[in-house]
Amino acid sequence: MNMSRPDGVRRRTPAVNQANGQNNAEADKCRDDDKKDDIDDKETRMTLMEEVLLLGLKEKEGYTSFWNDCISSGLRGCILVELGLRGRIDLESAGMRRKSLLMRKVIVKNDAPVGDVILDEALKHIKETSPPDTLQNWVDYLSGETWNPLKLRYQLRNVRERLAKGLVEKGILTTEKQNFLLFDMTTHPLVDQNVKDKLIKRVQDSVLSKWANDIHRMERRQLSLLMLSHASDVLENAFNPLSDEDYEMAMRRVRDLLDMDFEAECAKSQSCDIMWGVFAAFVK
């Protein structure tokens, strides 16, 4: 039996676990306070990228909509936020002239490997770039949406397929082959409906029963999931089962989030600059 791990998943070595567990003040600035949201404490915890992909995945067909042209860049935004929440990257200081979020450069705070191949690949690219580049440019570079041929080497390839393989290893998806007349395609149908149901319920509750009028009382990872699901055009999938009244309420609160002054929120104490910067890049 072939027991090799699928591409896109890396074994958690003691060195990686130690790096993930570093508890210094700088890393804490962008780390969720709630320990149950620490994705390193359980093997089956999902990253932001995996959650967004799962929301956008057709359950029986095992692939995302062919008409969704937003999910590619949205997943790259997830990668940058994930690295920020784990204390690996941040934005440079705004300085005396108070540079806008989109004009501030992405810097590496901690280059220790995360233990996820996609995250580590992105971190390596950011680390090796000199001088540092802006957050908006990094979204374009990682997704391949740039006119600069010198930056095409930064494109992260086959991200959806690699994320799906990771979810297969966690027992959430499976792997099949489907014939589309002219070609065969590898698909990853859902096999653990309970996991997706819990994810959808969590997204719904965050804008309904657990809505916090003070946005800074919302867990950063949950706020990021809402914003990046919207940017990836998959949030509607979580809201479709709602009643008309709840759907209207949920969408109104999402619009409130999109209308926030990200510059002002970022200026508040203990903010995660990279998170607000990614939001600004997609909502601009």
Automatic annotation (TrEMBL):
InterPro entries linked: GPP34-like, GPP34-like_sf
Protein topology in the membrane: Peripheral membrane protein
UniProt-recorded Gene Ontology molecular function terms: phosphatidylinositol-4-phosphate binding
Location within or outside the cell: Golgi apparatus membrane
Pfam assignment, any one: GPP34
One annotated Gene Ontology cellular component of this protein: trans-Golgi network
UniProt keyword terms in alphabetical order: Golgi apparatus, Lipid-binding, Membrane
Top-level division of the source organism's lineage: Eukaryota
Main location: Golgi
Record's compositionally biased regions (Polar residues): 15-25
Spans annotated as Disordered: 1-38
Biased composition (Basic and acidic residues): 26-38
Similarity annotation: Belongs to the GOLPH3/VPS74 family.
Protein name, entry field: Golgi phosphoprotein 3 homolog sauron
Organism of this sequence: Galendromus occidentalis
